[in-house]
Design brief:
- The protein is an all-alpha fold.
- The strands form 3 sheets. Strands 1-4 form a two-stranded parallel sheet.
- Helix 6 packs across helix 9, helix 11 packs antiparallel against helix 13 and helix 16 (about 315-325) crosses helix 26 (about 555-580).
- The protein has helices spanning about 15-20, 20-35, 40-55, 60-95, 100-105, 115-130, 135-150, 150-160, 170-185, 185-195, 200-215, 215-220, 225-245, 250-265, 290-310, 315-325, 360-370, 375-390, 390-410, 415-420, 430-445, 445-465, 470-480, 485-495, 505-530, 555-580, and strands at about 5, 290, 325-330, 340, 350, 585.
- The chain is globular.
Length: about 600
């Protein structure tokens, strides 16, 4: 039996919209007013959405349950699989003590607070967002800055603001992966569109951060360093997002801007070293030094991760891995059981590509890393168990939010909301980022906001004749500037900066900057939609391509052999440096 979606169940679009908005308004109320936990709000909202889908939209109970199950399954794989592996790798680095070396290394480059903010909050925070994500960047960089002697409010506030640049590509690009799955637009064009928006913000952001910390005059004193930091980051973010996909822009741009700024600081120093007035004493000594071998070993988990993810994303390798490790099936009872408003049956497939998934690449990188950083696999297993325990509620939240998103989409609720949003007509692209901003403010996650609203963005853009990739990408770009004021992010930053109980101060510190950046992105999106249309990538929707020829797997096997040789060489070099009796870390005189 085939069920057809309904857009206006009450034959009154105003009444239909009021009812359709109930699940979304509930999330606002639950998180902002009731201060309910994320997983609780998501589960209840999913239940509400199912009731409305069944009782108001006439969706069969079986289809509603299957739709939620389909969404939850996608939440568990590949999304949670990727998040678990990324956090697992980061936790291994912390457990082994290598992260302490990274902290000292980053902090010892310069004692100027302005430059430390660029290196740690902006560049290193971006790198962490690309690998660990999930609140770790703000927590880690804020704690590092406070440890160096930063004013706690400024440390936490600037780390929240700096985190805007990389959020769209966080956790190996998972926000864009979700937006692709929900909207039906392939990952690469979304990545390209976001990569043609955020680099503009990334160029400005370093100067903006330093101005917040030290004022406009003090920011001008280090303008060459600010320019190097922003331009190198923006260029690498643009290049990797447009040509390598959404997995590595944060890792590449973060590392690249660190290297460029460090190299520049070897030849240029500010005339004066700026510090906060009456700043607290540092909690660790920034003058400690390590050997080159120790530093390389500390970076080895992330070097191997970067290589693994790059090779795993190469199509010939994907073809080989999928040929021996992928299960794809039509979701039972749901595939082609729903007819869209355009009369097309909705294909509901589930792809379990357990070998080619990015999460598997991170797992392999972690397994290689464990002995390199001096841990046993027994200890690694213990860390993995702790990681699962650490992420138990986030896993539940992600599954619930994806179930909620799939119910909204399959029932036609999002189409109802899109019908009203389309009434903004010509101006909708201007407001598209606002929807993403609100979504991240509510959920604390650009990934969750994309799960909620990507389909709505797609449908609304189509109805007004704008390319949907513009508004779907705007949902992501707008969402990044909502991250700094989301209650979850504020709580994480407050805890890291020893500001528990002063969350309202931190919120007031960041909220105006969030609005400024949001308006900036709104104007960029409006311009992209109507003025610079040539900037929009050409693409085909998922599932619309003709059957491809059987791939030649020999090239994929060749690349895998090259990867194995490269990893073996890196591992051997690192183990040799470890075997040499490196001197104990000593203080520089």
């Amino acid at each position: 039996m085939i069920w057809k979606q309904v857009i206006d169940p009450f034959n009154s679009i105003a009444l239909s919209v009021l009812v359709a908005a109930i699940p979304i308004m509930f999330i606002f109320w639950a998180l902002i007013i009731k201060k309910m936990k994320g997983y609780q709000a998501s589960l209840i909202a999913t239940g509400l959405a199912m009731l409305i889908a069944i009782l108001v939209y006439g969706m069969p109970v079986k289809l509603a349950l299957l739709s939620a199950t389909h969404g939850a399954a996608y939440g568990l794989f590949p999304i949670c699989w990727l998040v678990i592996m990324a956090v697992f790798l980061f936790n291994i680095t912390v457990k082994s003590g290598q992260f302490e070396i990274l902290k000292y290394f980053m902090a010892s480059i310069t004692s100027d607070r302005r430059l430390q903010a660029l290196l740690i909050a902006f560049s290193f925070g971006s790198f962490l967002e690309g690998t660990a994500g999930f609140g770790a960047p703000v927590a880690i960089t804020a704690a590092m800055l406070v440890g160096l002697g930063f004013n706690p409010l400024y440390a936490s506030g600037i780390c929240l603001i700096a985190n805007t640049a990389p959020v769209a590509f966080g956790s190996i690009g998972i926000p864009i992966t979700v937006a692709s799955q929900v909207s039906g637009i392939p990952e690469l064009p979304i990545s390209q569109m976001v990569g043609r928006t955020l680099p503009i913000l990334s160029i400005i952001l370093p100067f903006y951060l330093v101005t917040i910390i030290a004022g406009f005059k003090k920011a001008k004193e280090i303008w060459p360093a600010v320019l190097i930091s922003g331009v190198s980051f923006a260029f690498l973010q643009w290049f990797s997002s447009n040509y390598l996909g959404p997995a590595l822009p944060d890792v590449i741009a973060g590392l690249g801007s660190i290297v460029c700024l460090m190299a520049f600081l070897r030849f240029w120093k500010p005339k004066t070293t700026w510090r906060f007035a009456n700043e607290p004493a540092a909690t660790f000594n920034a003058d400690i030094s390590y050997t080159n071998g120790q530093i390389i070993r500390a970076w080895s988990p992330f070097i191997i991760l970067t290589i693994m993810v790059i090779f795993w994303g190469v199509q010939p390798i994907k073809d080989v891995l999928n040929s021996i490790g992928m299960i794809q099936f039509e979701f039972p009872g749901l595939h082609n059981a729903i007819q869209g408003g355009d009369g097309i049956l909705l294909a509901k497939l589930f792809k379990f590509n357990y070998l080619s998934a990015a999460g598997t690449a991170i797992l392999v990188a972690t397994l290689i890393t464990i002995p390199l950083v001096g841990l046993t696999y027994r200890t690694g297993a213990s860390v993995f168990g702790d990681t699962l325990n650490q992420l138990k509620f986030p896993i539940l939240t992600i599954a619930a939010v994806l179930g909620f998103a799939y119910i909204l989409n399959d029932s036609g609720i999002t189409l109802t909301l899109a019908a009203v949003l389309a009434n903004t007509g010509f101006m909708f692209p201007f407001f598209a980022p606002v929807l993403g901003w609100l979504g991240v403010f509510i959920t604390g996650s650009d990934t969750s906001a994309n799960a909620l609203f990507s389909k709505l963005q797609y449908a609304t853009a189509q109805s007004i004749g704008v390319d949907p990739v513009v508004t779907v990408a705007a949902n992501i770009s707008g969402g990044v500037v909502g991250k700094m004021i989301s209650p979850q992010s504020i709580a994480v930053a407050a805890a890291a900066g020893n500001l528990v109980g002063k969350e309202s101060e931190l919120f007031r510190f960041t909220v105006k900057h969030s609005f400024y950046m949001l308006i900036f992105i709104c104007f960029i999106t409006l311009t992209q939609a109507y003025v610079v249309k040539w900037i929009i990538p050409v693409y085909e929707m998922l599932g619309s391509k003709k059957a491809a020829a059987i791939p030649d797997l020999s090239k994929g096997y060749t690349y895998l052999i090259i990867l194995a040789i490269l990893l073996a060489g890196i591992a051997t070099a690192i183990l040799r440096t470890v075997k040499k009796k490196a001197p104990t870390p000593s203080l520089v005189n």
